[in-house]
Amino acid sequence: MSSNSLVELDRLHLVHPVASYRGHERAGVRVLKSAKGATVTDSTGHSMVDGFAGLWCVNVGYGVDSIVEAAAKQMRELPYATGYFSLGSEPAIRLAAELAERAPGDLNHVYFTLGGSDAVDSTVRFIRYYQIARGRPAKDQFISVEQGYHGSSTVGAGLTALPAFHQGFGVPFHWQHKIPSHYSYRNPVGSDPAAIIAASTAALRAKVEEIGGAERVAAFYLEPIQGSGGVLVPPPGWVKAMRDLCRELDILFVADEVITGFGRTGPLFACEDEGVVPDLMTTAKGLTSGYVPMGAVFLSDHVYDTIADAAGQGVVGHGYTYSAHPVSAAVALEVLRLYEAGLLENGRKAGARLMAGLHSLADHPLVGEVRGRGMLAAVELVTDKARKTPLPAAAEPARRIFDRAWDNGLVIRAFANGVMGYAPPLCCTDADIDAIIERTRMTLDQTLEDTAVR
Ligand code: PMP
Fold first, then answer.
1. DSSP H or E segment with residue 270
2. pLDDT tens-digit profile of 263-274?
3. What is the pTM of this model?
4. Which GO terms describe its molecular function (predicted)?
């Protein structure tokens, strides 16, 4: 089918996620056609380094035959098995066991979903059940962090703190609360790590008090690094300080590792960076590297046992048709094997090269801040470094930067306020990383010449 007719059919029939519907109709879709390693090619034959691994998910890179074979083998043998009626399949059972073995602490119980949003949604259901089971039904309030992202489900979108996910949708709900982000580049308390940690712990205590005390609060959610909010890296010790405070207050601590899980920041899970063990943990994306949809909720022993004991012989009524899908599980098992057969190691090396390369751009007149960890990074653009003046929103800097990078042979995430986001596949070669840096520099130089954004 010709590119033109695809664009037209798309315009007429395909509703895109997180898009300006009218803006998209006007601009038209760009069709991606094929990919190999860290390179994607569109339907015009234009090839680019995918500096964003699709949507922070294709951690292993594109075109890995062993994954295709694992999926095909499973499809031939048993394409579907429900987990209802106490049925199961070998790949799902093996995957749960392999993940439990690698997860921090006593996160020994794994509930499979289709992606990150329904993983977050599932945590809310498990947590409500848990608090009621403990005889604490009044613990029904949830707290998350400004600039955080926890998915696009009806419930998750209210834990998310990005305005576009709220406006017009009637969320957040009254039981969903936020505390300020640690965002160190623009933090009213300054950039000193100790001051930021003190401000965040004080804010959580104050929020809990405002809600009516710890006896009202069910759980606190954070991302070890805030992704969709602009790759905001907390100061060292921040995640641990929040974890410790939740334990002190008897509030469940949920780590949303949908982006940070599976090697993105170096270790298999970012919580490991600070030796933190959450009560619940959500993952998706890198779990299957985007080859097929799947997410996973990890439950600690005490959360799982409390729910199980309360239900007794009764049913815990939470489940999807595609929970623990055998094809997704077979893919995830192969992906996990690849991580440990050198991919995590390559990701750590490539991440060091990526961060060094991006830091080498720090003296560019438009670069206000370079931040990141491992293969997760951002460059924040400003027009005035001393004042940290953002690029003018009216000039649509994100669209301009995205388009320029694309033309230069680089796919990045361009956030609305002029932040360039990076999450390349962990398989990147030195040449891939160097191309990302060089094409970023070109994009910055062109943006500097663009009078509309200055
Ligand atoms: N949580 C976090 C931290 C995420 O980054 C995302 C997706 N970007 C989600 C949840 C939702 O995942 P999904 O898009 O797979 O539903």
1. none
2. 999 999 999 999
3. 0.98
4. pyridoxal phosphate binding; transaminase activity
